[in-house]
Amino acid sequence: EVQLVESGGGVVQPGGSLRLSCAASGFPFSSNAMTWVRQAPGKELEWVSSIQPDGRARMPDSVKDRFTVPRDNDKNRVFLQMDNLRTEDTAMYYCARGVGSLRALPRGQGTQVTVST
Q1: Which residues, in sequence order, are CB contacts of 26 under 8 Å at separation 6+?
Q2: pLDDT digit string, tens, across residues 16-39
Q3: How far apart are CA 21 and CA 68, in angstroms?
Q4: pLDDT tens sequence across 64-81
Q5: What order of strands is seen across the sheet that includes strand 57-58?
């Protein structure tokens, strides 16, 4: 059974940083791409980043100069390092297995990130 458990969310001021963590189990993590998505209240799921098994990462222009997505294949974990956070980054953040249609990807329960003064 695929299990994905996110942690590390919280409340931070604009300009601050957070590091999200996703613990994966139930599938061969080191050979799977992983994706981070987010959903703000009343909005659709939004792609945040994807990382291939070899560490190659992609992310949209809205975050690429502020976010990085390291992974640790030995510990079956993927991270989302978020710097210079903005109020518009406020959302529930999910990690998901694989890449492709966001709605179809198995994902965890999420961790809330709130950026506010």
Answers
A1: 1, 2, 3
A2: 999 999 999 999 999 999 999 999
A3: 12
A4: 999 999 999 999 999 999
A5: 10-12, 111-115, 91-97, 34-39, 46-51, 57-58
